[in-house]
Automatic annotation (TrEMBL):
Its cofactor is Mg(2+); K(+). The keyword Metal-binding applies. Catalyzes the epimerization of the S- and R-forms of NAD(P)HX, a damaged form of NAD(P)H that is a result of enzymatic or heat-dependent hydration. This is a prerequisite for the S-specific NAD(P)H-hydrate dehydratase to allow the repair of both epimers of NAD(P)HX. It comes from the Bacteria. Its EC number is 4.2.1.136, 5.1.99.6. Residues 223-495 form the YjeF C-terminal domain. This is Bifunctional NAD(P)H-hydrate repair enzyme. Binds 1 potassium ion per subunit. It comes from Shinella pollutisoli. K(+) binds at N63, D123, S159. Homotetramer. Pfam families: Carb_kinase (PF01256), YjeF_N (PF03853).
Length: 495
């Protein structure tokens, strides 16, 4: 059964507030640290039962306190344990000082650490709250451990990874597994931090959900548990129009493939009817390739205006291979004026690069009807100031862009972020690396369009499309091409 904690993502600053609220409510912070360290020890023993020595690297704060608890638990289990401390343990304060005192063994300076073959390293130097480059002694430890390719169990987050942005601060351990507490932090999901965490285990150390929700900021891991019930159920009397009519704009005769990929994906993702809207010179090229997808000539604003008289056309995809920037802008205005829903991708986004302020007001009224699906380069064309701001995480950029544009923003990548104008954000983690192939984004746009056409709210339509797209990549397997993806789109997941 799904628990709210399973998808919750809390940035480090808010997690510090959670810890303070827990202590103020009477929960023993020392008890929380004890449970955290015990969980690390248990995970390390379970994952690496044949370790010749557990080397515990303890930092100067509470992460180090977790490490001292883990060292004590590992030693009590009969393991060979060596502890190395960054800084003087005598200068520790609070709970970390208490746990350091409870450790009966020695704690050598971190500078004396010399890794050996057969070691398993418990990285308890810095947790998710690190906001500066690693000190020199820690950098040398990272290098030494990496040279021998020793397995690392990270406490909370691999030291050197920024828990808010996922960025690497100078250098970072590459962990085989990470044991974190209460819930995930952005650094576990955002690249490159995610690639350094290994397997992530989230351990509930006893902080009540009511405290977590107070500081959650509406950031979650993208999961069917969040949007699984958002697809309207198809009754016994359903027909193709009740399942949604999606229209996809084709490019010119020399660039029709991208739009056909989107259209095929829309059909496989559940739209009852998909029509490819083609300029006259591209009709023959498209007709030769289409079967279940319908084809209609739309070769200017007048054609589109007549088409929009049919209210059954619920959603549009514009951008894949489109090419004509002036016509793209005109079509977007017509669709917005008609009150329809739109996925704007690729050339559709680029068409507004010189005047994004001409796009955003078009969809400003009512519930979100516009879904933008940029990769980083396209994002920078619409939101150059956000793209250039190095203080923002990918989540921050997507959230601010969504609020500015009154659109759902799907900021694509290995760590795709889906953000709503109301502040909600999801981070996706199920996309395999081989999904990064030409045409993959066109397929995603078609899935989003299908979900919109079926009546889903824009945020849930986009989030579920990103997840199904990732699953399609996993199902199609390594070596896939974009043409393999539509047939691999999985059935709608039911919670």
């Amino acid at each position: 059964m799904h628990s709210e904690r399973d998808t919750l993502v809390i940035p480090p600053a808010d997690m510090a507030a959670v810890d303070r609220d827990a202590a103020d409510s009477g929960i023993s912070s020392l008890g929380l640290m004890e449970r955290a360290g015990q969980a690390v020890a248990a995970a390390a023993l379970r994952r690496f039962p044949g370790a010749l020595r557990f080397v515990v690297l303890c930092g100067p704060g509470n992460n180090g306190g977790d490490g001292y608890v883990a060292a004590r638990a590992l030693s009590a289990a009969g393991a060979d344990v060596a502890v190395f401390a960054l800084g003087d343990p005598a200068r520790l304060a609070g709970d970390a000082a208490a746990m350091s005192s409870a450790w009966a063994g020695a704690a050598a300076p971190l500078q004396d650490f010399r890794p050996e073959t057969g070691d398993v390293v418990i990285d308890a130097l810095f947790g998710a709250g690190l906001a500066r480059d690693l000190p020199e002694a820690a950098l040398r430890a990272v290098e030494a451990v990496g040279t021998l390719a020793l397995p690392v169990v990270a406490v909370d987050l691999p030291s050197g990874v920024d828990g808010r942005t996922g960025a690497v601060l100078g250098a970072a351990f590459k962990a085989a597994m990470t044991v974190t507490f209460v819930c995930r932090k952005p650094g576990h999901l955002l690249m490159p931090g995610r690639s350094l965490c290994g397997t992530v285990e989230v351990f509930d150390i006893g902080i009540p959900a009511r405290i977590l929700m107070r500081h959650s900021r509406h950031i979650r891991l993208n999961s069917p548990a969040i949007w699984g019930g958002a697809l309207p159920a198809a009754g016994q009397a359903a027909h193709k129009y009740t399942r949604g009519h999606l229209a996809v704009f084709s490019g010119p005769a020399t660039a029709t493939g991208a739009a056909r990929l989107s259209a095929a994906a829309g059909l496989c993702a559940g739209a009852g009817l998909v029509t490819l809207l083609s300029p006259e010179p591209a009709l023959a090229a498209n007709a030769a390739q289409l079967t279940a997808v319908m084809l209609k000539e739309v070769d200017g604003e007048e054609d589109l205006s007549r088409l929009l008289e049919d209210r059954r056309l619920a959603a549009f995809v514009l951008g894949p291979g489109f090419g004509d920037m002036e016509r793209a802008r005109a079509y977007v205005r017509r669709i917005a004026e008609a009150g329809r829903r739109l996925v704007l991708d690729a050339d559709g986004i680029t068409a507004f690069r010189d005047a994004p302020e001409a796009l955003f007001p078009l969809f400003a009224e009512g519930a979100p009807r516009l879904v933008l699906t940029p990769h980083d380069g396209e994002f920078a064309r619409l939101f150059p100031d956000l793209a250039e701001d190095g203080t923002l995480s990918k989540i921050d950029r997507a959230q601010q862009a969504a609020a500015r544009s009154h659109a759902v923003v799907v900021l694509k990548g290995a760590d795709t972020v889906i953000a709503s104008p109301d502040g909600r954000a999801l981070v996706n983690d199920n996309a395999p690396p081989w999904l990064a192939t030409a045409g993959s984004g066109d397929v995603l746009a078609g899935i989003v369009g299908a979900h919109l056409a079926q009546g889903m709210p824009a945020f849930e339509a986009a989030a579920s499309a990103v997840w199904r797209h990732g699953e399609a990549g996993r199902i199609a397997g390594e070596g896939l091409t974009a043409e393999d993806l539509p047939a691999a789109i999985p059935p709608w997941p039911r919670p």
